[in-house]
Amino acid sequence: MQIYWTKINRIIDETPEVKTYMLDCPEGFTWEEGSHTHFALKGFNAGEKPNRSLIRHMSISTLPHENSIGITTRIKPECSEFKSILRDMAVGSEVALFKTHSNVPLKRENKNVYLLSSGVGLATFRPLVMDYLGRMDNVNQIHSLNIDSTKDFLFPDIFNALPNQKFSVQFVDNRIQYYDAVKELADDQDGLFYVVGSDEFLQQNIEILRSKGIDPAQIVLDKHPQQRSGFLPEEI
């Protein structure tokens, strides 16, 4: 396993509780839209076994052409040891990246794509939208649905409320409105449904999509195949 050590070059305050840590691109490090990585703090591999409390599974919120690796995360006042250390880190601090992979690349199958997320889950979808806006080939249109009661919406320069005919954005502030909207979107029996969030959030979305007749093959999760089978056992 190759570990890429790199440095924070910029810290962006996206909202009062959400920060993006922009990292230098180490030589040989590659990724694509929808990628996640293992993001580790100094000391995680100092002992005989990795210190898992200093490692988190994070989505990369940027594309390679932006020349920085973006890690976007929510840090609440009361938070874990990992988030507490991260909150106090500054530009120039070292972090490590390893095991980078994408389970949710943008599928270009001439279908409508629906991006379903909660809160900071939008960070996973930012690169997909940017990739699409840069090249719209073989995707009919994209619709993003996000539940966020804070009203401090992420990435307003991209996820704005002024849709064009091929990219539209919808924010709701409660789960009732959100799941009602999912049911409406699922009327598109040929669409592709990307879902990012907690395991409970995934299960609830899958239950609604399946009840509306959406095939498991149309549901895209940020999970490895063996993890995915726990959410969509019908595929086995």
Automatic annotation (TrEMBL):
Protein name: Dihydropteridine reductase
Domain of life: Bacteria
Lineage of the organism: Bacteria, Bacillati, Bacillota, Bacilli, Bacillales
InterPro entries assigned to the protein according to its UniProt record, in alphabetical order: FNR_nucleotide-bd (IPR039261), Riboflavin_synthase-like_b-brl (IPR017938)
Organism: Corticicoccus populi
